[in-house]
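Contributing new records

If you add data, match the layout below exactly. Sequence lines come first and carry their own label; structure lines follow with theirs. Keep one chain per record. Anything else will be rejected by the validation script.
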Amino acid sequence: MRKRCGDRLPTFSAEEKELIKGTSEFFGLNHYSTAYVAAPKGKAQTLSMWGNVQAGGYFDDQEVELIDDPRWGRSDMDWGVVPWGIKHMCEYIQREYNPQGGILVTENGCAVPDDDVTVAQNDNFRVEFYQGYIAQLHKAIQCGADVRAYFAWSLLDNFEWALGYSKRFGLVHVDYKTQKRTPKKSALVMSDICKTNVLRLPRHVLEASNFVMIEEGAGRKTTKDAPPSQKQQGAVEISPRSVGGLGA
């Protein structure tokens, strides 16, 4: 980071370093997806949610290509569903930072096209998303990650930044005209987990949540923020030997 950012990084006096040292109460992690990273051919480029090339700031500083396994499920944001990514991320945080207040997963969830309340009450895609991610989070804890809290994003369907009300992340369906709230199937599943402290999931969901290496020659560019960027991109070829993992 120091090499890439140079004098753009802030500096701290000895007194300021002493003042802030050890003041972090916990490590807060917002996690939605995972991608492989590879050295780019030429200059790396990422596309915004509008399909425009992004430049400047951390986009240029990363200087990597982000690549998805085409076998991964995809949310309504066109983000890959990669449960093992949260396990790897929490283990990395524990190993590198050993946060004294532990790790709090402050956001984790997925958008599903469930405008229709009847469809929303059977949001099986979201149910399996949470089952897979929580299963892998449990594995991270078993492997030594000090994870102390988990927050699903989100309780209610809401205004999703530049995409407005077009994307729904909620456990509870909101009729934006009447403001009526209706719990989705995922809300009932999460409620049961909280009540019983037990995660119940089908064996095939557990097995699908585990790490499987991307096949040689396979890969598609990662959607950085939101669709429709994938519609404007073709497949890419990569070599697994040049690829690393990334959680986000």
